[in-house]
Amino acid sequence: MKQVVVVGAGYVGLTTGAVLAYLGHRVKVLDVDPARVEDLKRGKLPFFEPHLQELISLSQARLAFTSQYEEAIPTAEVIFIAVGTPSGPDGAPDLSQARSAALGIGRHLGEGFTVVVNKSTVPVGSGNYVEAMVRRAFWEAHGQEPRAYAVVSNPEFLREGQAVYDSLYPDRIVVGAEDKRALEVMRELYEPILEQSFAPPPFLPRPERMGAVPFITTDLASAELIKYGANAFLAMKISFINELAALAERVGADIREVARGIGLDSRIGPRFLQAGLGWGGSCFPKDTLALVAMGEEYGIPMPLVRAAREVNFLQRQRVVDKLLGELKTLKGRTIALLGLAFKPHTDDLRESPALELAVLLLGRGAFVRAHDPMALTRAQSEVSLPLEYAKTPEDLLRGVDAVVLATDWPEYRTWPWESLRGLMRVPLVMDARNHLDRDRLVAAGYRYLGIGVPSLGVLNKEGIPGSK
Ligand SMILES: NC(=O)c1ccc[n+]([C@@H]2O[C@H](COP(=O)([O-])OP(=O)(O)OC[C@H]3O[C@@H](n4cnc5c(N)ncnc54)[C@H](O)[C@@H]3O)[C@@H](O)[C@H]2O)c1
Q: Do 175 and 155 form a contact (C-beta atoms < 8 A)?
């Protein structure tokens, strides 16, 4: 059992803290936002993440929240930095949160051997940077070198929407370290996960055939690059299938069949080969941008990663073009958006493809009315676009000229599409995630457009209102 502090109570920090407490460690989660800390103390989570609330309830005897560095840091044996690293103006990550976390840690570092763990996604060299910041802050506070601490890199691979599952049952744990003692501490900390020796929580049983988790130990720079490499590769994979989807449409192929045929090749694999509106969220956009910036810094142009970003932007534009192809003009049209979160099972709106699409539609003079099962309240306070919001299928679809599915929430498949059709001015469905049951929609009288699949169904003979 270790004394752990997690700095940053966001998606990564809170999940990491809850999981480590569940495994038996004593954990304090520290955040500079006092309102967030007060909410957490009262049991209120700052965002929606499946099973996190339940895990926190199970672990609360070993889990505390604070906004005070001086209270948490001195007794910690392992300190995770899990603060945000958003893109800065030049594309490189803004490390100001990581810097102030490192300074806060340095000022209050205790007597015993402490491992400072960089879990935030940070460019190569940041381990050294954090090391230096901790050392300087300790020196300024105490007029001497800190006694015993080491900085390691432990990149996070969790997916929002499945963060608890991914943390309990990861594909691998990567630790980059120069210090053998720190590596040993990390191995001990993660032992129950590495060996899968913990009792699974009732709501998340251990997957069948789950074996020991690979523990990848390497140097700091390699660990830091592994994280960017993984995210850029996944982003590239999605952009690749989206690029191929555009060609599939032209040549009359069905991208879902093509993706299946490609993905069954064990060298490629089926995941991240779903054509759609493209990727977004708090990681892929900023991490690909950071990789390009890192390449520039070192004179490596990274054309593949740049192209993945370009294709991704084009994907939103393609959806607008498809709507224009049907409706001829978007001026004065009302377009319904199914989904605002950047993916299902989260209320995170950061870099959401749905919002980027909304910007393009608004720019064409359309009105945009949006629905999301989880992110509506957050959107109303965080999004500055002039969107209309609808809470029910009926409110969303009444009088609209098209509905665009932007986020593949499972429940959209089971909406009563047959009875909703009559509410729409034009029964046109643009399924930008190839998610809905197109045969059912066509049978119910809709015109159906997807991504890289044949368009189906016809609109009525009188033509589309307002298109002439
Ligand atoms: N969200 C993901 O899916 C995900 C997955 C893998 C890796 N990551 C990486 O993990 C890091 C954290 O991401 P996130 O989505 O959890 O961020 P987040 O924005 O949800 O949370 C960051 C938290 O850190 C707090 N904070 C900022 N500065 C602080 C300081 N000096 N001291 C204490 N608290 C401070 C903020 O108040 C906030 O609560 C990022 O580098 C991100 O790239 C995120």
A: no
